[in-house]
Specification:
about 280 residues, alpha/beta, two-stranded antiparallel ribbon, 13 helices, 9 strands, about 45% helix
């Protein structure tokens, strides 16, 4: 993902392509709902009317296998209507003229039959996406586990580059994994071809660094907490009959709290109430 999941909350538009967050990633779905509450537009491209389509401003029910035709038609409209970010394209991209030639033949009218989406809908989708101040694209297994997967990812990324929706907050291209724990397991190195941080297992330097980390002593937060507790001196007993010992400390087994000096001639009962309140 080029951006954090939490950034979805404050984007102006969420473009969901081949992805059903409500079923596969409920936490991501909550952030999409937060974005909707904050006024974001939502576009869903999926043959099915998935849960997120119920709150979408636009649901593009394209035919199976027509990903590239639809995305190239959207790119065609953005360029044709001069909606693309010229400064971003000129300074931070390559191959624009080649891309322009590719999408030039994908007019919305020419792909209506292939995609099952009207030219009017395609143009409305392109305008909505390109006119947003910030737009985040989300895609899932409906893209990556499809025979057009690589080309679809390139087409979606091209739309983000075309509109300058990369390299700043609340935008980006954000692929998600099949299940909610797959991403964390991969990040932690629980896949055959990578160590943590996606360092390749065939890299000798990565192998040496991982071996050194595995054999070193690593302290968990709980272990460090136990060592701090064991190094503390035991709590002092309260002096008998003394009510104004500011150095006297109370321990509840986890922390010690210095008792402030009584404001006046406080009784033992008043101090007990103070310590009980702190302990709770």
């Amino acid at each position: 993902m080029s951006n954090a999941i939490t950034e979805i909350d404050n984007t102006d538009l969420v473009f969901i392509f081949g992805y059903n967050p409500a079923d596969s990633h409920p936490i991501v779905a909550n952030h999409v709902i937060n974005a909707k509450r904050n006024g974001a537009k939502i576009i869903v491209c999926d043959p099915r009317k998935i849960e997120t389509a119920r709150i979408a401003d636009m649901h593009i029910a394209l035919k199976n296998g027509s990903n590239i035709a639809l995305l190239n038609a959207i790119g065609h409209v953005i360029i044709e209507e001069d909606l693309y970010d010229k400064s971003f394209v000129a300074s931070r991209s390559e191959g624009f003229e080649e891309y322009r030639k590719i999408v030039e033949g994908y007019t919305p009218e020419s792909v209506e039959e292939i995609t099952g989406v009207s030219a009017q809908e395609i143009r409305a989708c392109a305008r909505m996406y390109a006119s947003a101040k910030s737009a985040a694209i989300l895609w899932g297994m409906g893209v990556t586990q499809f025979y057009q997967g690589v080309e679809t990812v390139r087409s979606l990324t091209s739309l983000a580059i075309l509109t300058g929706n990369l390299g700043k907050p609340h935008v980006g291209v954000n692929p998600v994994r099949g299940q909610n724990n797959v991403q964390g397991a991969s990040d932690a190195g629980l896949i055959p071809m990578s160590f943590p941080d996606y360092r390749p297992t065939r890299d000798e330097a990565a192998r040496a660094a991982t071996a050194a980390a595995a054999t070193s002593r690593i302290s968990t937060p709980l272990q460090r907490k136990k060592r701090r507790r064991s190094s503390r001196s035991p709590p002092q007993a309260r002096p008998s009959g003394v009510n104004n010992q500011s150095e006297w400390r109370y321990s509840n087994g986890i922390q010690r709290v210095r008792a402030p000096p009584p404001r006046s001639s406080a009784s033992s009962a008043s101090l007990s109430r103070y310590f009980l309140k702190v302990g709770q």
